[in-house]
Amino acid sequence: MEEVLTNPKAGFYINRDVFGAEGDFITSPEVSQMFGEMVGVWAMCLWEQMGQPKRVNLVELGPGRGTLMADLLRGASKFKNFTESLHIHMVECSPALQKLQHQSLKCMDEENTSEGVDKRSLSTLAGTPVSWHATLEQVPFGLPTIIIAHEFYDALPVHQFQRGSRGWCEKMIDVTEDSSFHFVLSPQPTPATLYLMKRCKWAVPKEVEKLNQIEVCPKAMDLTSTLAKRIGVDGGGALIIDYGLNGVVSDSLQ
Ligand code: SAH
């Protein structure tokens, strides 16, 4: 799943704009500018609650076309104390989408960017500096951090398990003799079984007993703990938005 989505040559997100009526799917920020504006209101409230710090990192994970952040900045641009405190960090693995985000935020590049340093620009929507990174780890520590992730978690790779006579087995993909793909069950426990155990511990035992299939997302678990640690150290908050069942998920693939 990770290869299919983010392979540097052929990944789904890597070379093109996949959003909107002409693309493959549509997301809330693309439907209405109110979405980004409302997320901006949330961010400003959090900033107020933090005591209006002079400098804040505003991080967006997987910003797509950059529409949410553009609407947030445009909406917040009248609140100068807030926008002047911001340094925006866009975490995006796709060079094509980074370019689109740069356009959406109406960015001007700073001169003298030395090699090896992440690109830094200024968004003319609210006069805020913007940096791009391929991973969250590259976003500098040391400032209170407001993190937004809209439909980012659902792009992270999942593992699926099925209960059989051997107990829980991981569903894997095999290639048949005629080169087509099909699902098979693992003959023995796989590394992702560790995460299965963790997930089952959080669920209501009665719910787990009834299940024959279950899905886990180790990257989502790790990301959440990374975000929590960062906020624990630097202060701030995170708003994570995704859509789906509230409970144990057995199969979210589409
Ligand atoms: N938040 C946007 C886009 C959601 S789609 C919106 O609501 O419209 C998922 C986004 O995450 C895309 O921008 C995709 O390129 C990015 N992405 C997916 N996997 C990623 C990864 N592992 N690291 C960084 N960015 C990733």
Q: Which range does the strand content fall in?
A: 15-25%
Structural class: alpha/beta
Counted by DSSP, the helix tally is 9
At the first level of CATH, the class of the largest domain is: Alpha Beta
Small molecules held by this entry: S-adenosyl-L-homocysteine
Could you tell me the CATH topology label of the largest domain.
Rossmann fold
Helix content: 25-40%
Instruction: Give me the side-by-side strand order of the main sheet.
Output: 3-4-5-2-1-6-11
What is the helix/strand order?
HHHEHHEHEEEEEEEHHEHE
The number of distinct β-strands equals 11
Shape: globular
How much is the average pLDDT? Answer: 94
Distance between the termini: 12 Å
CATH architecture of the largest domain: 3-Layer(aba) Sandwich
Instruction: Characterize the biggest β-sheet.
Output: 7 strands, mixed
Number of domains: 2
Family: Belongs to the NDUFAF7 family.
Subcellular location: Mitochondrion
Catalytic activity: L-arginyl-[protein] + 2 S-adenosyl-L-methionine = N(omega),N(omega)'-dimethyl-L-arginyl-[protein] + 2 S-adenosyl-L-homocysteine + 2 H(+)
Pfam families: Methyltransf_28
